[in-house]
Amino acid sequence: xxxxxxxxxxxxxxxxxxxxxxxxxxxxxxxxxxxxxxxxxxxxxxxxxxxxxxxxxxxxxxxxxxxxxxxxxxxxxxxxxxxxxxxxxxxxxxxxxxxxxxxxxxxxxxxxxxxxxxxxxxxxxxxxxxxxxxxxxxxxxxxxxxxxxxxxxxxxxxxxxxxxxxxxxxxxxxxxxxxxxxxxxxxxxxxxxxxxxxxxxxxxxxxxxxxxxxxxxxxxxxxxxxxxxxxxxxxxxxxxxxxxxxxxxxxxxxxxxxxxxxxxxxxxxxxxxxxxxxxxxxxxxxxxxxxxxxxxxxxxxxxxxxx
Length: 307
Ligand code: AR6
Ligand code: MG
Description:
This protein is mainly alpha-helical. About 65% of the residues lie in helices and about 0% in strands.
């Protein structure tokens, strides 16, 4: 149990650190020359701000989804300086203006809904809380997504990331088999684009091609199908090393903050908070808040699983 607590904390802090470290390099091309976290990191962006909203709302609602409450929490926390995506900004501003919480996201992108990676980037707490209940994990991840991202690919990206967090938090870091991990991910019902990429990841893990080919085949962009897969790949290529997971994710370029946020969630869930340098944690913005919420989420998990 002690380890599980450390993993909840590692995953939440790993997300914020990945977001914060990657934020300095957004939009650059591979190979990004990544400086030390202590030189450039500390301040987080929309990824962590929205994850904080998910945590706040789940914690106050006993781990259940309350759409109005979560949407209002996202609106309350919204700070434009955190560099939100344009779709998410528009949706949250319309909710702020009084539209029903479940309407603007459906109407976004001419009614198609967003498939940006903004649902996947905030989903880590759902993967942690429901790591031993896949049906519930899928339901809640989908519900948390649709406040801003109703397109199937946006929602599926969040489910895929949440399930990867769930598998990571349960895996033994000494014996984790990346190919077995991938087989479990492939058991999810997802659109073809995800299955194609998950198959590619499995091939790359057995025999890695040059990094620029991995980037061109998996993508490093702000849409979910072009960011969740490479986050999973970078995690599974470096499962024993928290630093390498984040560093390799940022080196790939593109949407570095969100990709490192997602791979950081996975590495922290597997390796626990002890794998994160203490001086990194110390400089993290709002670290006390994130630490407390991670602990509260773990206590909620214990409470729910003792019933
Ligand atoms: N049709 C065309 N383009 C789309 C569609 C669609 N249905 N859906 C998304 N896009 P958004 P996010 C493109 O705005 O997902 C921040 O830096 C479109 O270009 O909903 O919350 C975060 O940190 C759209 O603007 O935002 C993330 O890194 C973009 O995908 C990132 O932005 C993102 O979708 C995504 O944030
Ligand atoms: Mg961001």
